[in-house]
Amino acid sequence: MSVDRCRNIRDFRTLAKRRLPGPIFHYIDGAADDEVTYRRNTAAFERCDLVPNVLAGLDGIDLSTTVMGQKLKMPLFCAPTALQRLFHHDGERAVAKAAEKFGTMFGISSLGTVSVEEIGATISTPKLFQLYFHKDKGLTNNMIERCLAANFDVLALTVDTITGGNRERDLRTGFTSPPSLTFKSLVSFALHPRWTFNHFTSEKFELPQLSRYVKEGSSLSVSISDYFSTMLDPSMSWKDAEDIRKMWGRQFCLKGIMSVSDAKRAIDIGATAIMVSNHGGRQLDGSRSPFDQLAEIVDAVGDKIDVVCDGGITRGTHVLKALSVGAKACSGGRLYLYALAAGGQAGVEKALSNLRSEIERGMMLMGCRSVAGLSRENLRWR
Ligand SMILES: Cc1cc2nc3c(=O)[nH]c(=O)nc-3n(C[C@H](O)[C@H](O)[C@H](O)COP(=O)(O)O)c2cc1C
Fold first, then answer.
1. What beta strand segments (E) does 102-249 contain?
2. Per-residue model confidence as pLDDT tens digits over 214-225
3. Which residue, among 136, 10, 121, 24, has the nearest Cα to 82 in the 3D structure?
4. In angstroms, what is the span from residue 187 Cα to ligand 1's centroid?
5. pLDDT (tens digit, 9 = 90+) per residue, 273-321?
6. How far is the CA of 373 from the CAs of 63, 162, 363, in angstroms?
7. Does 26 contact ligand 1 (Cβ within 6 A)?
8. Whose alpha carbon is nearest atom 15 of ligand 1?
């Protein structure tokens, strides 16, 4: 199968599984503990039905939305994800350019593998930087300063990772970044020669947001769980989040809010957006799904802060349902990561194109001209 023939995220996942060494595929595909939350994030959308209106006399569909002060041409954007050059040698460059083509926002992680300066100079569409709060305050501040200089529009502070989730697939495969050269990983490389050739012949793997600051560099193989537990500050508080918001001074988002009380506190500290998210089920297994939690959060704070529904999205109709509840936009990780692994920029473009068509078709079949026209009147829960 080629990227052109991938019709949905399942197809991209199949292709990604074929192309990637096992530990890397499972790092993308896996989640915490029994992966209950991961599965529920998508299943939640199936407990809610769309009720269309017909004969709407539509003369076109407008998919644009404004979120975090950014006008996006489609209501779905690329959530920040780590280590993208492990998945495809072009990594963040490929995803950023694909997002630019579709006029949507690109999020880059603190653990990105291309520098924020390069991304800032490469794309002119909205850019979000995802910040991890490090024990080393100099490092956190350095990231903020670099993103200000690189003209990033939004800073998203991730608040659901003060310790690493129990990702048992990674423990089983021994996943580290960069991949460590063990007997098992060498076998896995040998079985995936195309990935291995591209990975080892392209520029040296590094984490430029970290490596220019951390003396040891970022080429030592570490597990993501080690990074969370050794480098991130578990004492992060509302006061810290507020200080970061003040230092940043632009659009500021908290990523990983799940409760109404936290959503209200986000407003108190001056955040302009929240991403309702459980980190794609990779952190607290048993946590509720973002879609299930969306209505009560929108009801409490939706008129004061932008609410984004992050995670579990595999279909355009999922986006329609979240927007109908009151999200300003949706975001996702795996929905473009499998495609990145399957075919680089062309893969991500095909995934975004499929999803855009699905959203557009869904809007037509719902009899709805613009995303603002979607409301809970068009939904029923089972
Ligand atoms: C492989 C992978 C790496 C991720 N890395 C980060 C990260 O570095 N920072 C972060 O805030 N979220 C990270 N996330 C979480 C995503 O931003 C997003 O919340 C999640 O993927 C949404 O779930 P979905 O994959 O079902 O769309 C990562 C997710 C995946 C799948």
1. 106-108, 127-131, 154-158
2. 765 566 677 777
3. 24
4. 27
5. 999 999 999 999 999 999 999 999 999 999 999 999 999 999 999 999 9
6. 11, 38, 10
7. no
8. 279
